Amino acid sequence: MNYPRWSYLQYNTVPDRRRVVITGVGAVSAAGVGAKALWEALLEGRTCIDIYERVGAAGTDLGVAAAVKGWDAARHIEPRWRPRRMARVTQFAVVAAHEALKDAGYRPEDLAGRQVAVILGSSVSTTREVEMLVREMDNAGTRGVPPSATAGQNFQSAAIAVAELLQMSTANITSLTNNCTSGVDAIGQAVDLIRFGRYDFVVAGGTDAPLTAVVASAIKASGMTSKRHLPLEASRPFDRERENGVLGEGAGMVVLETAALARDRGVEPYVEICGVHACPDQRRDQPSSGLEITMKGALDNAGCNVRDVDFISAWGCGDPVLDRCETEAIKNVFGQEAYRLAVGSIKGVTGIPLGAAGALQLVALSLSHRNNLLPPTVNWRHGDVDCDLDYIGGQPRRVKLRKTLLNAHGLSGGNISLVVGGAG
């Protein structure tokens, strides 16, 4: 969702009790189940992309993908939830949200009388289940439609399932579909609504399961995926030999709440969300042109300047054009300060799980703040005249982080940036 500039409440006008912090993180990714699995893969510089030759009954040859390997929902979701009846995208969301709530020390009784919400973003949502349903109907007609079909293909099913985890009947539910920025858009909306006093506690993030025949075929036909069949080299953000992105799947979830509520609950936050701004590309022939506007807007919204920022969690999808354009946007916003900054991308590990991609970035960024440690950009080895910033090659980097900035970009030209700060 692209909000106009005036809709954001400025950070310096937010009462202290309405400051927004992250107190819990959760993840499902190609690295495995859990934020810990993602963090370990990032620090090890271990790509989780693998051969994924056939998708769906039609046997689409995708080549490589960042799939969640060996996924069995029944191992991670209690039987009473009937996990195998859930859409894959819902399964991912439920597992990641459960981890985030546990990490945040969530207890329903702590939120009695509070305004609570779930805001989730997804790019293709339950497309996988819709495809399966169409195949069943082709084979057996309407008799092939199972009783669970309605719930399985409901675009809001993931948000509804996560709301049930809260065990609160008053939780408000919102689902966003805005291509690859969906997860961060959901988080950005949550931040603004908490600041304005609409909610005190929100579970927000992104979830997607796009490894389906229709989605994979469409993305492959558009030329937006790497043609390399060597998984370890397929995703190369900002590298001179980058070829394109790699499709992935998963979910990233965070618990957002007011700083005052976190103090009352005795919970130590990971980070504070200080600034948010979203804007579409200004011209179709200038991809990522909106990122320059969103970075400036997020900094302005946070009330800070370019000298306050130590690191940028870049979209960095490995596309030859988009990586160059994002680098140019960073240099246009930060000037000479851009060469002081560290810039990193997690796409060499996770691929691009569409609406979950930016939310997984925020999970990783939260862990970077807590540990004062920046993971390397996996597969960045060769410098490029057009991508000439410090992309953290080789080993993790120990650094004291003040403010950081996160970028997300969507296939439709949407962009959003967040400014994140220490919660102390």
Percent of residues in helical segments?
25-40%
Strand content: 15-25%
Write out the CATH superfamily name of the largest domain: Thiolase/Chalcone synthase
Using only CA atoms, what is the Rg?
A: 20 Å
Q: Classify the secondary structure makeup into a structural class.
A: alpha+beta
CATH class of the largest domain: Alpha Beta
Count of β-strands: 17
Total helical elements? 13
How many domains make up the 3D coordinates? 2
**Overall mean pLDDT score?**
88
Give the N-to-C terminal Cα separation. 30 Å
Task: Please describe the biggest sheet, giving its number of strands, its sense, and whether it closes into a barrel.
Answer: 11 strands, mixed
User: What's the architecture of the largest domain, going by CATH?
Assistant: 3-Layer(aba) Sandwich
Give the low-confidence spans.
1-6
Write the H/E string, N to C: EEHEEEEHEHHHEHEHHEHEHEHEHHEEEE
Q: Which of globular, elongated, flat, extended, rod-shaped describes the shape?
A: globular
CATH fold node name of the largest domain = Peroxisomal Thiolase, Chain A, domain 1
Structure description:
The chain is of the alpha+beta class. It folds into two domains: 9-265, Thiolase/Chalcone synthase (Peroxisomal Thiolase, Chain A, domain 1); 273-422, Thiolase/Chalcone synthase (Peroxisomal Thiolase, Chain A, domain 1), CATH 3.40.47. The chain has 13 helices and 17 strands. The strands form four sheets. Strands 1, 2, 7, 8, 9, 10, 11, 12, 13, 16 and 17 form an eleven-stranded mixed beta sheet that branches. A two-stranded antiparallel sheet has the order 3-6. It has a two-stranded antiparallel ribbon with strand order 4-5. α10 runs parallel beside α11 (320-334). The longest helix is centred in the first third of the chain and has 16 residues, at 88-103. The protein is globular, with a radius of gyration of 20 Å. The two termini are 30 Å apart. The model is unreliable at 1-6 (pLDDT under 50).
